[in-house]
Amino acid sequence: MKDTFSRPLIPISIGLVMIGFGLHQITNARKWNSYIPKVVKDITPIEPDTIIKLHGTGNLSLGLLYILFRKNTLVRWTVSGWWLNVMLLCGKHSLKEGMRDVPFFLTTLSIALTGKK
Predict the structure, then answer these.
(1) How far is CA 110 from the centre of its chain?
(2) Residue 19: which H helix or E strand, with range?
(3) pLDDT over threshold 90, residue 115
């Protein structure tokens, strides 16, 4: 039996999570500054709030792309790579938060690998 209704709900849900994180990072950048690795703070002249707002813009943009163009191979792989990065950075900040992101990464990776729409 072909499940045409629920299959798109997974990437749409993940995209909505990304949009939510992105909006929060853009509007409350200071709350996210502790997530920036020290090495990044040391080598870049960009203010931490600006780094977070840029990351939030990435979250927002990729979330929208994942919802609108979830059938696109490049979008699927880019979102999976993004979640790998988020999982590792959050895991370095807090193991609990890194573990929270494992299902997002594994799900996006599975969608990218199988090409399921």
Answers:
(1) 15
(2) helix 9-27
(3) no
